[in-house]
Automatic annotation (TrEMBL):
Its EC number is 2.7.11.1. Residues 353-364 have a biased composition (Polar residues). It comes from the Eukaryota. Residues 1-11 have a biased composition (Basic and acidic residues). This is Serine/threonine-protein kinase VRK1. It comes from Aldrovandia affinis. Coiled coil: none annotated. One of its GO terms (molecular function) is protein serine/threonine kinase activity. Transmembrane segments: none annotated. It catalyses: L-threonyl-[protein] + ATP = O-phospho-L-threonyl-[protein] + ADP + H(+); L-seryl-[protein] + ATP = O-phospho-L-seryl-[protein] + ADP + H(+).
Length: 458
């Protein structure tokens, strides 16, 4: 499902051309429509709403059918996003979809570039809907499955190296397409990457609420810093340009992609300890850009650093603000990374590897921590119930039985001064024996040699 459970540290979200930008807190959330509500798009096509399945930005998401005469079931292939008409995010997103995500455009690109699929959601329709005197904007989209952020967290915040490189290749396809259609995304991250509803080996980049038309009618926007737009996007991934208030660009999209891939591999970016301080994050990224090799070493052990990520970030670093990226060269870098680990891009996204194999140091730490936890549980078990059953507990009986003739020795007699009759294995159960021995001072000291802490309780 195309679901957004929370806002992801976005600031200064793009608004409609007219009017002043408003802060996210002032935006209204669409009221919930009853299942069965019918919406008519600008092409006069009617869409039937099913139950709401979640929240997207400041709108609600509903399952939908294109046949109003049928009930909307759980397998409905479409999702309709609805927002109050005066909200900005859906307006901006809608402009992108109408210009660059029509089905025929996407299919033509797939064919001309010999791709198996392209991870850009298709636009199926949109319009305005009035209810009880209020106006709502809506857009019809493909339905998707879960997002990669949920999967990432379920797998201890690690993706395998092969998986990350494959995701990078798929995203290069997506970014090249949207860049060639005059837009940049500006908010690439795992929570905006959704698996196909029908094919879990296909991933789609969604949420174009921050999408920016960097080249309207082929005219490139110029580099210009705007203090009012500083730190736009999601703080941990956004570009250095965005930290300075510069409008999104193609190189910024690729920089964001690089941060995402590195985080997916190592689990945490160096500046994630102070995300509440955007200036610290900005300065950290600038230092990392100035010395990319050192940046990578902060994330990986020296013998296991992914060389392809150094090369990828170095290539992005060379791009000017208005430069067109060399997408094929970037693909070659990631493909070389796959080859270096003996893998190929087999079009299968394997999420079963929970810890990144390219960083054994983190694997060792995890294994050691788990071992300690297991040992701790074992100790707790031995501390009480197992005293009655563990073979080591029976050792004192044998010692007492064989040591009875040596009572003359003062030092060795202390653990054996317990009544021999009571220590007889035939006349006393292990439980009773321990209880009786507990009245003496010396036997527990003898037992302590075998079990440690439990003897204090006895």
């Amino acid at each position: 499902m195309l679901i957004r459970h929370q806002q992801d540290k976005k600031t200064n979200i793009t608004m409609p051309p007219k009017g002043k930008a408003k802060g996210p807190a002032k935006r209204k959330l669409a009221e919930e429509f009853p299942a069965g509500e019918v919406l008519t798009d600008t092409a006069k096509k009617r869409w039937k709403l099913g139950p709401p399945i979640g929240q997207g930005g400041f709108g609600l998401l509903y399952l939908a059918n294109e046949d109003p005469s049928e009930a909307v079931g759980t397998s409905a292939p479409y999702v309709i996003k609805v927002e109050p008409s005066d909200n900005g995010p859906l307006f901006s997103e809608l402009k992108f979809y109408m210009r660059a995500a029509k089905s025929d455009l996407i299919q033509s690109w797939i064919k001309s570039h010999k791709l198996k699929y392209l991870g850009v959601p298709k636009y199926w329709g949109s319009g305005l809907h009035e209810k009880e005197g209020k106006r709502y904007r809506f857009m019809v989209m493909d339905r998707f499955g879960t997002d990669l952020q949920k999967i990432f967290e379920q797998h201890d915040k690690r993706f395998s190296r092969k998986l990350v490189l494959q995701l990078g290749l798929r995203l290069l396809d997506i970014l090249e397409y949207i860049h060639e259609h005059e837009y940049v995304h500006a908010d690439i991250k795992a929570s905006n990457l959704l698996l196909s509803y029908k094919n879990p080996n296909q991933v789609y980049l969604v949420d174009y609420g921050l999408a920016y038309r960097y080249s309207p009618e082929g005219v490139l926007k110029e580099y210009k810093e705007d203090p009012k737009r500083c730190h736009d996007g999601t703080i941990e991934f956004t570009s250095i340009d965005a930290h300075k208030g510069v409008s999104p660009s193609r190189r910024a999209d690729l920089e964001i992609l690089g941060y995402c891939m590195i985080q997916w591999l190592c689990g945490r970016l160096p500046w994630e300890d102070k995300l509440q301080d955007p200036l610290y994050v900005r300065d950290s990224k600038i230092k990392c850009r100035d010395n990319i090799s050192e940046f990578i070493l902060k994330c990986f052990s020296s013998e296991n650093k992914p060389d392809e990520m150094v090369k990828f970030m170095e290539e992005v670093k060379l791009l000017g603000y208005t430069d067109k990226p060399t997408y094929q060269k970037l693909r070659s870098i990631l493909q070389a990374g796959l080859k270096s680990i003996g893998a190929t891009d087999d079009d299968k996204l394997d999420f079963s590897v929970s810890v990144n194999g390219s960083d054994p140091s983190s694997v060792k730490k995890t294994a050691k921590r788990k071992k300690v936890e297991v040992n701790g549980e074992s100790d707790e078990t031995d501390n009480a119930p197992k005293r009655k059953r563990t073979p080591k507990k029976k050792a004192p009986k044998a010692v007492q039985k064989k040591a009875s003739p040596k009572k003359a020795s003062p030092k060795k007699a202390s653990p054996k001064k317990a009544s021999p009759k009571k220590a007889s294995p035939k006349k006393a159960s292990p439980k009773k024996l321990l209880v009786e021995m507990g009245t003496q001072t010396s036997p527990p000291l003898a037992l302590k040699k075998g079990r440690g802490r439990p003897k204090k309780k006895v």
